[in-house]
Design goal:
2 copies of one chain form a homodimer. In chain A, about 45% of the residues lie in helices and about 20% in strands. By secondary structure, chain A is an alpha/beta fold. The complex binds adenosine-5'-triphosphate (ATP) (2 copies) and magnesium ion (2 copies). Chains A, B: It comes from Tautonia sociabilis. Chains A, B: This is ParA family protein.
Chain lengths: ~250, ~250
């Protein structure tokens, strides 16, 4: 039975896609079979793993999901590609609670051969993120160490609580991941301390540093673990992977 | 008659809010009366200007918009605050083409005393962004000099074309703003050259550098022009302001 994890935060550009890709890659390197599902119409997780976006989103194509899964350059790591079609984005966002429970059925039955499924969510609290939370056992919330970061945190946490109460009793907050941390910036230290002060154990110990090699890796269709294995960013995602496995 | 400009890009964290705030501040410093409208449920533009989010979004409150306008610490710069209520976000996103034309009426008639209105859009191609494009004379598209940046550009440009053809014949692409540019990063140079190669004159000459003082300003409720007037980031937004005024 796969462990389904949503990577979500309506604040944009906080490292959702980067965390979904590199954590899934870390889990695959640790011998687990990992799948990244791209439900963001931008398809960054798809292209970041060197795969072409699908013409029709697999969740709308009416075929068994397993048939749409694409292998990546890394053994043990696969991706269910997104679709850039504006029409698909509209169809997926128009979904409702029926779709959320259908998604949970589909993921549970058709993709159960994977150990971990990471769902990369778009930067919004709309139906796609809600359906994804409805289908997940946990939600990971990446947060950038910047001023605007704290603002939206209460909203995504509130949405996770609502989803747990209404649709999916199993949903837990898996953890908050501090990303793009630059120890030389006072603001980064202030935000990191504030988040830890507020959310305590819910914050992963591992902090992801700002590292340009992380932002270069997707242009090669690789995770940073394959693109620059000795980089600080790669080592941090390996550490985060070990923390995730420990928590299980 | 106000010039209404949407600041939009479905890619998250590219500097939409930062550009809406600092460009509006620049226009106010140049003697124009400027208003920032916050239609993003995260309310970053509202808090970034030191103002409390509204309990009810002014677009849903049923009062004349002018009554909800709040002055900021800077003369000539005001904000129509957003609302963090998830219910308002749903109500606004459920809007449709009627709402877009109603918004155009309301903005045209109730807020005509301003010279410039900048609408800060959420990171999505949903109804809020569509309604905002439907009400605007121009759209400014901030783009971060990073790999994922180019991916989504064709989508927002396609949406602007659709809006122009269906709802709002006046809509033009006002310009693409290169943000968070770090000249030492090869990736940044590659992306900047690619964007200029592709979009030529549509790209503003002014490039906004990565500058930590820009990301610190909102925690003081100030634009970077007031927080750190001699900073590279502040000077760049002043240059961008002059370019915007020249284009008019
Ligand atoms: N630790 C890091 N160091 C440096 N750059 C990073 C880091 N993490 C992410 N980035 C870069 O920052 C940008 C934003 O990250 P990413 O696209 O993963 O965020 P996101 O939350 O998925 O964005 P969106 O809200 O648009 O989905 C990307 O260009 C990415 O390469
Ligand atoms: N030129 C810059 N230099 C340094 N930091 C910047 C710059 N521009 C923006 N930032 C910071 O980067 C983060 C993202 O910027 P901002 O919030 O304006 O993007 P956005 O596109 O509005 O995000 P969203 O998609 O969530 O609405 C913020 O923390 C902001 O302070
Ligand atoms: Mg993403
Ligand atoms: Mg914003």
């Amino acid at each position: 039975m796969a462990k389904i994890i949503s990577v979500a935060n309506q604040k944009g550009g906080v490292g959702k896609t980067t965390t979904a890709i590199n954590l899934a890659a870390g889990l695959a390197k640790a011998g687990r079979s990992a799948l990244v599902i791209d439900v963001d119409p931008q398809c960054n997780a798809t292209s970041g793993l060197g795969v072409e976006p699908a013409k029709r989103h697999p969740l709308l194509a009416g075929k068994p999901l397993a048939e749409s899964v694409v292998a990546t350059a890394q053994p043990g790591l696969s991706v269910l590609p997104g679709s850039q079609s504006l029409a698909d984005a509209d169809a997926l966002s128009a979904s409702n609670r029926q779709r959320a429970s259908a998604l949970r059925q589909q993921l549970g039955s058709e993709l159960s051969t994977f150990d971990y499924i990471m769902i990369d969510c778009p930067p919004s609290l709309g139906q796609l993120t809600r359906a994804s939370l409805g289908a997940s056992a946990e939600v990971y919330i990446p947060i950038q160490c910047e001023y605007f970061a704290m603002e939206g945190l209460s909203q995504i946490i509130e949405l996770a609580r609502q989803t747990k109460a209404r649709d999916n009793r199993r949903l837990e907050i898996g953890g908050i991941v501090l990303t793009m941390y630059d120890p030389d910036l006072e603001l980064a230290n202030e935000v990191a301390n504030e988040v830890r002060g507020f959310f305590d154990d819910a914050v992963f110990d591992t902090v992801i540093p700002r590292d340009v090699l992380i932002s270069e890796a997707p242009s090669h269709g690789l995770s940073v673990l394959d693109y620059a294995p000795r980089a600080r960013g790669a080592r941090a995602y390996v550490e985060l992977t070990l923390e995730v496995i420990d928590r299980d």
